[in-house]
Amino acid sequence: MTDSSPSAQTRPVRDIELTLPHIQLQAKAWGAPDGQPVLALHGWLDNAETFSRLIPLLPEELYIVALDLPGHGLSQHREKGAMYHFIEWVPDIFDAADALGWDMFSLMGHSMGAGAATLAAGAMPQRVERLVLLEGIGPLTTPPSEAPAQMRRALEQRHRYFSREHRVYPDVESAIEQRMNGFPVEEEGARLLVERGTKMDQEGVRFRFAQMLRATSLMRLTEPVVHAFLSAIECPTLFVRASEGFLHRPGVDERVKQCKPMTVLDVEGGHHVHLDAPERIATQVAEHLHLSS
After folding, report:
1. Alpha-carbon dihedral of residues 200, 205, 210, 214, nearest 10 degrees?
2. Is 111 a catalytic residue?
3. What is the mean pLDDT of residues 57-62?
4. Residues 281 and 240 sit within 8 Å (Cβ to Cβ)
5. Does pTM surpass 0.90?
6. Span 73-97, mean pLDDT?
7. Left, alpha or beta for 71 (phi > 0: left; psi -120 to 50: alpha)?
8. Alpha carbons within 13 A on the beta-carbon side of 66
9. Active-site residue, from 111, 163, 174, 243
10. In the chain, what are the domain boundaries?
11. 2-142+222-289: in CATH 3.40.50.300
């Protein structure tokens, strides 16, 4: 693991690189390495900057490492042609923790990252101390009867995205506008995500994320399997659900019932409330993660 010099922010934050057995990951780290360890996992097509407005509001005793997951942000992409299956985020999580020298740690995830965190905490409960789920509680599922159609779509999309180039934007402002029109996020947050998640060449500005991330999974878990993972979680869990987010849909309340002990925090805001209005959740997240408080 290598790191660059600390930035000029009040709270120490630095860029670090993690060498996993199969890939190089970039990350941002807040706090001192001897603090209480927390691994933060961003959502689909986002990057580590998604936490850069929330983490400074959390206790300084926490050492929080926010990953750029494979194919996102500044991290390496998986090998050419590889698909990004949801369950593969789980070994990435534990490989990153191992690279940091962490045996036990807490997890904080947003959306896709929260879904991956639930699987990780259910699979290896002895390693996860606390869990914070921001607008996510398990992955998308498919009933068994729909599995052949799911795989058919994935195979068709694989060829579509295998060699597709990213759209070129004339400038960063245009890319920010596009990001704001995706999963809705306010301008300040969109700017942070775009600054880390794009690159510039002679033609203009392009997003960095792997195009294969847009392809659907070959196979999804079923709802009973997700329930089994949630039921296997042993650590205290905080689930943050936004009023204008994506978690007010059939099946979410049943998932909540599987995970004990769980605290549900309903707040005003959208899917990126942790980035758009972090002050609305910072106190509760801080109290949940700060083990010595």
Report:
1. 180
2. yes
3. 95
4. yes
5. yes
6. 95
7. left
8. 26
9. 111
10. 2-142+222-289
11. no
CA distance 217 to 205: 28
Segment 104-137, tens digit of pLDDT: 999 999 999 999 999 999 999 999 999 999 999 9
Place of tokens 């399997």: 225
The DSSP line for the chain is -EE----SSSS-EEEEEEE-SS-EEEEEEES-TTSEEEEEE--TT--GGGGTTTGGGS-TTEEEEEE--TTSTTSPPPSTT----GGGHHHHHHHHHHHTT-SSEEEEEETHHHHHHHHHHHH-GGGEEEEEEES-SS--B--GGGHHHHHHHHHHHHHHHHSPPPPPBSSHHHHHHHHHTTTT--HHHHHHHHHHHEEEETTEEEE-S-GGGGSPPSS-B-HHHHHHHHHH--S-EEEEEEEESS--STTHHHHHHHSSSEEEEEEEEETTHHHH-GGGTHHHHHHHH-TT-
29 strand-pairing partners: 14, 65
Residue 204, amino acid: G
Let me know how long the chain is.
Answer: 293
Amino acid in the structure at residue 27: A
